[in-house]
Amino acid sequence: MADHREANVTLPSEPVSVSAARRYVARALTEWGLAADTDFADSIQLIVSELATNAVQHTFGQSPTFTVELRLEREEQLHLGVTDSHPRWPRRLPAAVQQDNGRGMVIIRCLAKECGGRLTVTPTADGGKTVWIALPWSIPVQS
């Protein structure tokens, strides 16, 4: 059994790409043994949706694409990252602004915490960033 599995896809920063990112992640994780009808799978799908939506909506046309990356390390830790080339890092908006939007990062952090994971942001070489979610993985990996 491999100690490390990876999958990634680069998509255009367009609204239709959010559902494409979700489908890509669902397929990859199903191939790795995660049943699609679990709370864990649902949480991952919502996290992917929120991160991809942020990459499309909040880069203001400065990131023509975004990349979704999955890494499964030693069948213990799943890393899900969404990378875009916009230099602004995600931030929480003031409460007054959050009436219509701005809750994405709060949702992502809560879901990650519920699943026993954490959120980090790392810079990329081209001045963008990757928002990473690390989650514990306890599902036997398919060969």
Provide the β-strand percentage band. 25-35%
Distance from N terminus to C terminus (CA atoms, Å) equals: 7 Å
The neighbouring-strand order within the major sheet is: 1-2-3-5-4
- State Rg: 15 Å
> Segments where pLDDT lies below 50 for 5+ residues?
none
Number of helices: 3
The major β-sheet equals: 5 strands, antiparallel
Helix content: 25-40%
- Please state the overall shape, judged from the principal axes of the Cα atoms: globular
Topology, number of strands: 5
- SS-based structural class? alpha+beta
Order of helices and strands: EHHEEHEE
Average pLDDT, all residues: 89
SSE layout and pairing:
Blueprint lengths: L3 E9 L3 H16 L7 H19 L7 E9 L3 E8 L19 H11 L3 E6 L5 E8 L7
Antiparallel strand pairs: 1-2, 2-3, 3-5, 4-5
What does this structure look like?
The protein is an alpha+beta fold and 143 residues long. It has three helices and five strands. A five-stranded antiparallel beta sheet has the order 1-2-3-5-4, with helices on one face. β4 and β5 form a beta hairpin.
Name the features:
alpha+beta; 3 helices; 5 strands; 143 residues
Short description:
With 143 residues, this protein is of the alpha+beta class. Helix content is 32%, strand content 28%.
